[in-house]
Amino acid sequence: MGVTLPRKELFDIPEGMIYLDGNSLGPLPKVVPARVAEVISAEWGQQLIKGWNVSQWMQQPARVGNQVAKLIGAPDDSVVIGDTLSIKVFQALAAALKMRPERKVILSDNGNFPTDLYMAEGLIDTIGKDYELRVVDPESVIDAIDESVAVVMLTQVDYRSGRMHDMQQITQKAHQAGAVMLWDLAHSAGAVPLDLQASNCEFAVGCTYKYLNGGPGAPAFIYVRPDLMADVKPALAGWMGHDSPFAFEQNYRPAASIERMRVGTPPVMQVSALEAALSVWEGVDMQELRAASIALSERFISEVGARCPALTLASPRDPTVRGSQVSFAYEHGYAVMQALIDRQVIGDFRAPNLMRFGFTPLYIDVADVVAAVDVLEEIIEGRLWDDAKYRVAHAVT
Question: Which of the four, 17, 72, 157, 266, has the lowest number of CB atoms within 10 Å?
Fold first, then answer.
């Protein structure tokens, strides 16, 4: 039996706020400020460069990688932290293509997060050689996997609707066709139970600032299946991925471990914040978390359907194929979301008309869900969204 959910006391959420946007940026765990202050004052301030050895800053990416590994069903020493998700997508995709040099197709879907597609386009522009990015509808992925495909690159949970791919089924089909499987877990890690080891996928990447609560711009992670570690060829041959960085050899020689997927110097304060934030997961059973997430999202869908019929559900109705978020479409969705935020119910908006709500059982309960719909109903029924200030487009939606 895991811990009791929610664990609101572990988070610093402003009084009176209902935070339904953990699928975009997780809230601040209370342990983080003191830990970051300690790193700044006691470690950087007092140790200066000695901190790399005394406080083991250099070992952080692998150490914290092992913490993340536990949440995604990966074995120790198969995950490393660092850089941004875009960089990790590029790394994994480039390495995957090298594993199938006779094939030229990268298969993805139009529900993938745009940065993944952009990185694929940029990689193709860089290497040329007649490579093709083939993008299909999410429902067509299985049928589109054939012997021409080098890499299947998908985001498991759609950032817009929460629709969730079947990891096991798609990975199996990719392998039957001789393709390499790359999963983006940005909207999965910390939201749904994962078992990368059982899936047998070659690569996975993800960010840590959503459900893992690592903070704005928290570093990404990359997973490599252990049996492939010695053969993966990093396209970004950074000095941190060298087998012996401080030998300062003129030519690159990759580390024998997951360390070869490191690129640049680790962002110590960001990784320290993430390491502290991950402590809120101690004792949490992912199956129990998933059950709580489904219960919350089902209650939300039911309440909105009954009380705000003008809104259209844009997420799968079946919770087993939906992540930990729910989206509703509405013609005036942006203005409604701004009105919600103005009243301390925090979600977000994705063009053209989607209002997104994340359900994170670590700090959300049924009372929060009902109270959020109370506010939403008031805004819709009273047309409170119909105010010029709610139509002002912000840089981040």
Answer: 17
Give one DSSP letter per residue of 293-332, joined into a string: HHHHHHHHHHHHHHH-TTSEE-S-SSGGGB-SEEEEE-TT
CA distance 189 to 206: 7
55 pLDDT band (50/70/90 cuts)? very high
The residue behind tokens 């985001």 is 155
In angstroms, the Cα distances linking 147 to 102, 152, 225, 234 are: 11, 11, 22, 24
Q: One of 203, 209, 223, 349 is an active-site residue; which one? A: 209
Token pair of 20 as six digits: 């339904």
Instruction: Work out the average pLDDT over 228-242.
Output: 93
pLDDT at 1 over 60: no
Q: Is-catalytic flag, 334?
A: no
- pTM summary value: 0.95
Token couple for 367: 């009372």
User: In b/e form, how buried is each residue of 338-348, taking b as 16+ CB within 10 angstroms?
Assistant: bbbbebebbbb
Widest CA span in the chain: 69
2 confidence band (pLDDT: 50, 70, 90): low
Catalytic residue among 11, 356, 359, 368: 356
Place of tokens 């012997």: 147
Write out pLDDT tens, residues 3-53. Answer: 789 999 999 999 999 999 999 999 999 999 999 999 999 999 999 999 999
Which class for 358: exposed (0-12), middle (13-18), buried (19 or more C-beta within 10 A)? buried
At 182, list the tokens.
């790359």
In 3-state terms, what secondary structure has residue 236? coil
Give me the catalytic one of 11, 113, 203, 349.
113
Give the percent of the chain with pLDDT over 90: 95
Which of the four pLDDT bands, split at 50, 70 and 90, describes residue 392? Answer: confident
Q: Does residue 218 come out as left (phi exceeding 0), alpha (psi in the -120 to 50 range) or beta?
A: beta
CA atoms within 13 A on the CB side of 217: 4
Per the residue annotation, which of 88, 160, 163, 210 is the catalytic one?
210
Q: Taking the CB of residue 36, how many other CB atoms lie within 10 A of it?
A: 17
Is 252 noted as a catalytic residue in this protein?
no
210 assigned to active site: yes
